[in-house]
Amino acid sequence: MRAAATQPIAATAARPLVGGPSLTRTALVLGSGGGLLLVVMVLAVAFGSHPVDPADTLAILGRRLLGLPLAEHWSASDETIVLAVRLPRVLTAMLVGGGLAISGAVFQALLRNPLADPYIIGTAAGASLGAVAGIVAPLLLPALLVGAGSTWLGLGLVQLLAFGGGLGAVLLVYAVARTNGRVPVVTLLLTGYAVSAILAAVVALLMVLSGSALGAVFAWLMGSLARAGWSGLAFAAPLLLVSFLLLLIRWRTLNVLLLGDAQAATLGVDVEREKLRLTMLATLATSTVVAISGTIGFVGLVIPHLLRLAIGPDHRLLLPGSLLFGAALLALADLGARLVGGLPVGIVTALIGAPFFLYLLHRSRLSGVGAIG
Amino acid sequence: MVPRARIRLLSLLVPLLLAACGVQPVATPIASSSATLAPTSTPGPRPAFPLTLTDDAGRQVTFSAPPSRIVSLAPSNTEIVCALDRCEDLVGVTDYDDYPAQVADVDKVVAFAQVDVEKVVAAEPDIVLAAGNELTPTSVIDQLAGLGLQVLVLYPASLEEIYADIELVGDALGTAPRADELVASMVARVEAVTARVAGLDAPRTFYEVSVFEGVIYTAGAESFLASLIELAGGDPITGDALTTSIQLEDLVAADPQLILLGDAAYDASVTPASVADRPGWGGMQAVIDARVVPMLEDLVITRPGPRIVDGLEALARAVHPGALD
Fold first, then answer.
1. Residues of B in contact with A219 (CB under 8 A)
2. Per-residue pLDDT tens over the stretch A48-107
3. Which of A55, A88, A229, B27 is the most exposed place for a label (fewest CB within 10 A)?
4. Chain B closest CA to A343's CA: distance in Å?
């Protein structure tokens, strides 16, 4: 599977370098993405397991967020449900979905590999180890119990260790993969795979030792939006915005890297330095969202693919598009998960998203649009 | 990536850990010879050995003589054996066993939820008390039975079934009179509790088993735990019967008047203050009225053994402070 590593994602990458996306196409992608996101947001806040009158939902939002002078005839619990339970959860789903999708788009270009997802070179394993250590350590070392309850920047010990673990694992992988100042793509992938295997073994060991905390470990590894709150959003939103903008201004580099390292170098790109920067920025985005949601699969793999099928591989459009559509998809999947009784959202994204992805893949093959390697 | 297969495997353990909050039994427990014992009935003559008993999995087990070497594969089974004054006959228990204190010295034949079949066989037990609902995997039960061991499966899912299981073990160990005595005292204490809380307003009561990544686990609908809360004079807010979880917005809508923190017994970071700080929890009546109570007795509330009555009394004290005094 990994042997296909260097296969180019798109041989047509050179095309947009010349012309760039047309204004209408840009407007179409961003307009439809933004519109979809808005519709999903309204739906996801309006519906849930406990029915709240949609008119009341709008009135609560209008009164509390916009300060409209509306009569308060709703119950206090309805207001709590809309403002403190659903709204932060929907926004978190959007942030996580968007973050994973842009990160996936970057890793697919960077590694020129259609199997790349945001977790591929160690982020998931590192973040998992951090989180699981955060859950289990206070049990093994009771002196840390105080630390387990406290928060920094609105984050608990588990979230912070997940964030640091994701970043740390990728730094480690990158350092190990570097040979003679260069980091060949295949070496990076294989190193990521091997380091992930080691970290996963430690995670498994901690799970065996976790005793009564096994449920907590399991819940984290499954990924969940159920613990979403305003404090997590306040931590994640600025970090994600910064990494997104810094990635977006590198759209040209990402386009050129699709041609291969050698080609990119002849086009004047400092390939090794840019690869490191792009890797760390994408890892920052992934680690940020993983810290507040656990490892949610599928979104980061599929959204960039679908968009590439639809609009081509130009990152000037692909990155903002991934952000919008990734956000909408995860919020929609989470709405579905909440409506069927609170399933982990990753199950819904995969069960509904994967068949749809297969259908699109099949259709694009039939029509001869080979946008994926 | 994380080893998905391993996670899936371990996911099977999660329901086991949560089984304490009252997942329905796989097999309907079949009453032992004395299961129909009413609180007031006088124990009749017991059949002599050899004795054939039917366990909670519907299996028939024949004992030729009273067993003298006992292996327990669940802490609740251990507590039943010790409450029948046969603690010193235990030759194997689990690494979770913690009561009574003397079981700490008994060899551990279950570690990390895995039964070590070799150790069970090496202990040469005359009887193995397994747990139902896959707490002891069916494959292990079959394996032990296939090795010629007398395996009795216990899975009580109500107070009546705990009584029945105590009688069943009493019959098997040849200590039926002690079992009758124990059950009679349990029945009397339960009746005392229900008499004290009768007629009092039942507060909407939410029992928190655990909160993992925002997923809230509580008593499942129709579960043992829910029935205990009712007996203690509360009106239980229950979760899904299968997953035993409840979504936050449903809990907010149910608006508990009393929140009991079972997880506070194991996790010092779960406190009334930390509950009030959770997003969405601050507006609940119980939080506003400061009726969020750590239940440090969670172990005896959720362990289906003789001390379940201690658990019921602790629940009643939390639900109706002062009513038992």
1. 212-213, 215
2. 888 888 888 888 888 888 888 888 888 888 888 888 889 999 999 999 999 999 999 999
3. A55
4. 10
The answer to whether residue B260 neighbours chain A at the CB level (below 8 Å) is: no
Q: What is the pLDDT of residue A153?
A: 56
Chain B hits for A200, CB-CB cut-off 8 Å, are: 1-3, 6
Of B2, B18, B283, the CB nearest to A76: B283
**Tokens standing for B128?**
């193995």
Task: Say whether residue B247 is in contact with chain A using an 8 A CB cutoff.
Answer: yes
Confidence of residue A40 (pLDDT cuts 50, 70, 90): very high
Output the six-digit token pair for A217.
Answer: 């470990």
Is the pLDDT at A109 greater than 80, yes or no?
A: yes
CA–CA distance, B275 with B260 (Å, rounded to integer) = 11
Residue A125: which of B2, B13, B252 has the nearest Cβ?
A: B2
B17/A215 CB distance under 8 A: yes
What does pTM read for this prediction?
Answer: 0.78
User: In chain A, whose CA is at the least distance from the CA of B214?
Assistant: A227
More confident residue, A359 or B219: B219
Alpha helices in B125-175 (DSSP H): 138-146, 159-173
B-chain CB neighbours of A341 within 8 Å are: 240, 243, 247
Give Dmax over CA atoms of chain B in angstroms.
63
Does residue B116 surpass a pLDDT of 80? Answer: yes
Subunit contact A200:B2, Cβ cutoff 8 A:
yes
From chain A, pick out residues whose CB is under 8 angstroms from the CB of B280: 80-81, 84-85, 229
Cα within 13 Å of Cα(A367), Cβ side: 9
CB-closest option in A77, A216, A342 to B253: A77
In whole angstroms, give the CA distance from residue B201 to residue B183: 29
Beta-carbon pairs below 8 A across chains A and B: 124
pLDDT at A21: 67
Q: Rounded CA gap, B272 and B293, in Å?
A: 7
Q: Whole-angstrom Cα distance, residue B303 to residue B214? A: 25
Give A162 to chain B, closest Cα distance, Å: 13
DSSP calls for A61-114? HHHHHS-------S-HHHHHIIIIIIHHHHHHHHHHHHHHHHHHHHHHHHTT-T
Say yes or no to pLDDT of A138 above 80: no
Q: Which CATH superfamily is domain B51-189 in?
A: Nitrogenase molybdenum iron protein domain (3.40.50.1980)
Confidence tier at B10 by pLDDT (50, 70, 90): very low
pLDDT of B282 > 80? The answer is yes
Whether residue A280 has pLDDT greater than 80 = yes
Between B7, B215, B247, which is nearest A221 by CB?
B7
Q: Which CATH superfamily is domain B201-319 in?
A: Nitrogenase molybdenum iron protein domain (3.40.50.1980)
Interface of B with A in 86-115 (CB under 8 A): 112
Where in chain B are the domains? 51-189, 201-319
Mean pLDDT across chain A, nearest whole number? Answer: 85
DSSP state of B92: E
Q: Which residue intervals of chain A are DSSP H helices?
A: 14-18, 23-46, 54-65, 76-80, 87-110, 123-140, 145-149, 157-177, 185-209, 214-222, 230-248, 251-257, 261-266, 271-293, 299-311, 315-339, 345-366
